[in-house]
Amino acid sequence: MQPYSLLFVLFVATLVVVHRIIGRSRWRSYQWVVLLAGSMGFYLWSDARSFGFLLVTSLTTWLAGKRMRAFDEACDAESKTVANRKERKAVRQAFQKRRWHVLLATLILNFGILGYVKYWNTLLGYVHLDQGFLASRLLLPLGISFYTFTSLGYLIDVYNKKVEPEEDYAHYLLFVSWFPQLIQGPINRWAEMRDQLSTPRDVSDEDTRRALLLILYGALKKYALADTLVGAITACLDFIDYSTPGAVIVIGIVLYSLQQYGDFSGGIDMVEGVSELFGVRMAQNFRQPYFSTSLAEFWRRWHMSLGEWMRAYVFYPLAMRPSMMSLNKWGTKHLGKTVGRTLSACVSNVVVFVLVGLWHGAELHYLLWGLYNGVVIALSDLFRPLFERGRAAFHVREESASWRAWGIVRTFALVNLGRYFDRLVDPRALLIALRNTVCNFRPSGILTWLGELHTTPYLRTALILSAVACLMVLVVDIRTERGEDVAGEVLALSPWRRLLLYVGVVTLILLSFVAAATGGGFLYANF
Amino acid sequence: MPTSDVHEGAAPQTRRWGRTLLFVAAFVVLLALMNALLTLLLVPYGSKSEVVWKDYASADEIDCVMVGTSTIMRGVDPQIVDAELGTHSYNLATPNQMLDESYLAIKTAYEDHGISRVILGISYSQTMLGDKPNPGSTFVRERAKVVGLRQRLEADAYLLFEGGAIRQASSINMLFPWIVNKVTIAPSAIIPNVRMKLDGTSVYDAAEINERGWHYGGRGFGYFTWTLDYNTGNARPFVTEEDFAAFAPDAPVAPTLNADRARALDDIIDYCAEHDISLMAVVPPVPDFALIYYGPNYDNFSRVLRDYLGARGVACYDFNLALPALYEHDEGDFTDSEHLNRQGVDKFSPAICELVKRTEAGEDVSSLFGTAADRVASMDYISCVLEEFRTEADGVHLDARALAGPSVQAEYQYLRKVGDEWVVLRDWSTDSAFVYVPENGERGRFELCVSARKVGSDVEYDRYRLFTVLY
Q1: Strand B382-392 and strand B395-404: pairing?
Q2: What pLDDT does residue B394 have?
Q3: Which residue of B26, B167, B470 is in closest CB contact with A2?
Q4: Any residues with CB less than 8 A from the CB of A377 and at least 6 apart, and which?
Q5: Chain B residues with CB-CB distance to A under 8 A?
């Protein structure tokens, strides 16, 4: 079910009305049931055949959490019967081991399901067996990456005793299946969502207007900024051969960066706006990422929920392992204190980004993309003292505007270099693109390419629309980065100005369908 | 007695609601005005669908309709059909018409005129490509102008719910007709479009102005008179051998029609059966080079299609398999890789009528059809040559394919235009591949040509193709 469709609009509108009516009635405490029914309805309507996968993941993680609680209670009871401290420790360790086994089994099961539906056929393809009987005929279930990570995050938090396991399966199912997050995230945390989903909520007029404005802004990014760029990106990057000027490839990659931002963050804005219509604020997923001054900062501002998940459940557990501490000691001994202290973080970063790459897909180019990001971040951590000494030597103030501007430009370049691995799936095209970027840049090639735009209907129109949308988004992002409440400022405009603004934005969005070459789907849907 | 507090509390809320409603109403009005303006500017005047439906509205008696895509719109002349069969036919085919739209056309014609015969044009794209129907398409919009409200709403409901469009962006965009139906967004297209709308130009004249060379023949039929230049014209077929790969005999999964398209086809079949409408399906002919290009799996596709329809009691006749006793075309019958011109229509239309007559007389017409493989095997000439190229570090890698029957051995020659002269880069060889390395590291735009002829021939060429390479 596409967010930009009559069915979705009617679905959300109906659900909002029912939610509000129930919220003002004596059944107010059952408002969450409306959300659960809506989420179930959304999933069954969108992907009924895969509903079983959602149930399996939610049930197994919920039961595993309850089992861990049962172990905790049994452990407490047994500890009380034991007088000896050493024996009490042994009891706790025994139960901890059982908890670990439950966690491990659930992780293997659910990651196994995700791995099978998402990666199995790709892996078979590498050995030319993807057309035979071994191949899976299953379609990728809606939102499987997101709800798998969401539920396993909950279970790991239960294991680490950061949250109490939920006793009521229905409440937990709502958390896992909350429909706005299924389309393309974010990956929400139980601690932040539980109360929001389960307790009755009154949504003020102000919050409703802000939510609608967020949906409109997201649609602007998705349709007017991102979708209109598809034709130009295809023209630049899908027919790369030896003669393609590097300048055209660079333009294509930069446009792709903009498209990724518009599509992903626009989609997130739309689903977050929908969620906020019900008074449920989901995890923030983007924070003006292209204003980052380092690649590490970029990944703290882009797809933030995935980054936080990886940090909490992969990076820190890995970096703090005894084997990593030993690595640090070895590094300190042989390579110096600075390197030694950073080694475990470097290795963990590389592992995290390889996993992030693979999260996108099992293809080689995603692996390379993840590896690239991990290695660059690791190297910048390793060389940070050197960079700091260099800055000090040249008396460069880190807080200065020019240094920040340089950081932004440098980071944008690094991010775009990574996009070569992300976008260029064909290894041959990737190698030619990298080669031509350096050895065959030919800026004059841009003019030839621009001159040939007339042969592609609507391409020029699409680029103009995208440029207008890009400018609007840039203004909003700059002001948001400065801490301004742009939505508040818009809502405070006079009614006529707001009217003209809204009609103008809606017209821009509609015009983008005239010029776009896509069917309107999201890049990250079915992840 | 209620306190004033209650009223004072209620009043601000009521005012707030009132202001909100007023704001929403103003937004809707402004949006409607914007919509009307963009409709005036961008929606093309004189589209084929507009011509078809406008003329339909003034047609008196109709007992037979043709439906399908532009291959039928430009391929079947109702006047020829009427002269042969004594019918009062109307061609309701339109460019890119989806089967869901064909269903609506048939339904409209039956409800308005009680038709008793349908000739359904059908092909790969209609049965295999998976787009959802668009309730904002030109066909639907123009039909809506000539039918009643109930029929309009029924059509929208059919496309939204049966067709699945309610899950697509088109379900919202249908409110803005200029999104789907628009002229090129440039003053050179918009100004004449608006002028024609305002100055009283008829839709028929507008259609002919919009597309030079197109003529309206009446009763929904439009055609071109020009002929495809096999050397320089647009000869690359839209459907390729890869598209038919799913129909290979050793395909891992049994080939079927696209589920959405099959559903719409079933709706047509069921409707005709329910209302006692005689339904015949025809696959329009394509030029010889296209049939060769489709590859060896075309026969399987044709069989799957005919079996699907046959199992549902509908005869399907693939004119690409027709034997000369029924239908024969020559090179001059086409405007491109799938459309007939006026000359071609004068052969295709009577052939359809011949089939109708024979089948209604109870004759077995299977002997009038062969296989694509046999037809291709009989082609002892080069119908067309297509080029392929890519640039590498070591030069421009060229390749060509002479589309000819299997008995033909072709040889190729590569040339380059230098100034006004054509210089031979590589002389005649049966090797179609050639790597051109420009001399002295020359770079730029090269005009090249590949010529093909039969081995043993001494003609300058049988076919050639010009193309430009940027190196």
Answers
A1: antiparallel
A2: 87
A3: B167
A4: A295, A296, A299, A349, A353
A5: 16, 19-20, 23, 26-27, 30-31, 34, 38, 42, 160, 166-169, 171-173, 176, 178-179, 182, 184-185, 252, 390-393, 469-471
Question: Distance (Å, rounded) from C-alpha A367 to C-alpha B22?
Answer: 54
Would you call the peptide bond into A186 cis, given omega within 30 degrees of 0 as the criterion? Answer: yes
Q: Is the pLDDT of residue B1 over 50?
A: no
- Which residues of chain A fall short of a pLDDT of 70? 129-138, 449-457, 517-527
CB contact under 8 A, A243 and B471: yes
Chain A residues with CB under 8 Å of B16 CB are: 205
- Residues in contact with B192: Cβ distance below 8 Å, sequence separation at least 6, in sequence order: B209
Task: Say yes or no to pLDDT of B9 above 80.
Answer: no
Q: Are strands B410-418 and B445-454 parallel, antiparallel or unpaired?
A: antiparallel
Cα pseudo-dihedral A388, A392, A397, A403, rounded to 10:
-60
Q: Which amino acid is at A212?
A: L
The residues, ordered by sequence, that sit 6+ positions from A72 with a Cβ below 8 Å of its Cβ are A95, A99
Distance of CA B432 to the CA centre of its chain: 32
* Cβ within 8 Å, pair A503-B30: yes
Counting every residue, how long is chain B?
471
Amino acid letter, B346: D
Q: Which of A490, A461, A462, A491 is nearest to A475 (CA)?
A: A490
Give the pair of three-digit tokens for residue B435: 């790597």
Predicted pLDDT of residue B5: 47
Choose the mutation target among B35, B129, B173, B448 for the interface with A, i.e. most A CBs under 10 Å. B173
Question: Are B27 and A515 a contacting pair at CB < 8 A?
Answer: no
Cβ pair A420, A434 in contact under 8 A = yes
Cβ(B450)–Cβ(B384) under 8 Å? no
Digit-coded pLDDT (tens) for B402-432:
999 999 999 999 999 999 999 999 999 999 9
Predicted pLDDT at A53:
93
Say if residues B372 and B320 touch (Cβ distance below 8 Å). Answer: yes
Asked if A416 and A437 touch (Cβ cutoff 8 Å), the reply is no
Q: Are A276 and A210 in contact (CB under 8 A)?
A: yes
What tokens were used for A137?
Answer: 């005929």
Instruction: Give the type of residue at A419.
Output: R
Cα B141 to the center of its chain, rounded Å = 18
Distance from B184 to chain A by nearest Cα, in Å? 7
| 8 Å CB contact between B228 and B334 | yes
Both structure tokens of B428: 């005649």
Please tell me which of the candidates A7, A495, A519 has its beta carbon nearest to residue B23: A495
CA-CA distance, A510 to B179, in Å (whole number)?
7
* Phi (first) and psi of residue B466, to 5 degrees: -95, 145
The DSSP element (H or E) to which B194 belongs, if any, is: helix B187-198
Instruction: Give the number of residues written for chain A.
Output: 527
Query: Which residues are within 8 A (CB) of A202 and not within 5 positions of it... i.e. 6 or more apart?
Result: A23, A279
Q: How far, CA to CA in Å, does A54 sit from each of A179, A449, A450?
A: 12, 47, 48
Between strands B89-91 and B117-121, the pairing is unpaired
Residue type, A216: L
- Where is B422: in which H helix or E strand? strand B421-429
Q: Does B4 score more than 50 pLDDT?
A: no
Per-residue tokens: B364: 């077995």
Asked if residue A351 lies in contact with residue A374, where contact means CB atoms within 8 angstroms, the answer is yes
**Closest among B367, B368, B360, B279 to B319, alpha carbons compared:** B368
Name the pTM for this structure. 0.90
Query: A-chain residues within 8 Å CB-CB of B168?
Result: 2, 5, 519-520
Helix, strand, or coil here: B103?
helix
Phi-psi label, residue A442: left if phi above 0, alpha if psi -120 to 50, beta otherwise:
left
Cα of A299 vs its chain's centroid, Å: 10
B168 touches B132 (CB < 8 A): yes
